[in-house]
């Protein structure tokens, strides 16, 4: 039986009130997507509003275009799926073997406090199935509770986009949340590598990656949990 993977992405495309565009970071979708696809998984894409997921224009610049990102631009099937994601409220945890959240700055706005997302993760974890998130997407974990009522990340090794990485982007005062601060506040044991170096934490059913280069390694870690 092929495994069924749900990927949940942002619908948010504006960087605060800067007038600049944001959204999902392409590498953080493309690398995991092809890791799952090449492993033979069936993949379903969802977002808070459904429909087209906004892609951060900075992630389409030449220096951000990894092999997987280039593969995506030539993949009509993947691009069609990205344009027609299902609304998050229509997703049922029992239909999937795992869920993965790609980052980009968008999730800081529309997935950080999303009740449908929180319930989805709680249901997936309660079913003994794993959850992965990379870069800014681990923000989705901040209010998720475990079956015992404690915050899910409490006492767990986690990572995500660091305060120093956000500072390097010059966005510390623009974003609504700092991933590192929020995960620490929720009781997580936050681990980090140098800025933009690969870092993945696996703790129980939780897989988190620090930044875009950690996307494929985080996906591989999630696959390892499913095998």
Automatic annotation (TrEMBL):
Family, per entry: Belongs to the peptidase C56 family. HSP31-like subfamily.
Keyword Zinc: no
UniProt keyword terms in alphabetical order: Glutamine amidotransferase, Lyase, Stress response, Transferase
Highest taxon above the source species: Bacteria
Name the record gives this protein: Type 1 glutamine amidotransferase domain-containing protein
GO molecular function, one term: transferase activity
Gene Ontology annotations for the cellular component aspect, listed alphabetically: cytoplasm
Segments forming domain DJ-1/PfpI: 26-216
One of the GO biological process terms: methylglyoxal catabolic process to D-lactate via S-lactoyl-glutathione
Species: Alteromonas australica
A Pfam family this chain is assigned to: DJ-1_PfpI
Keyword rRNA processing part of the UniProt annotation: no
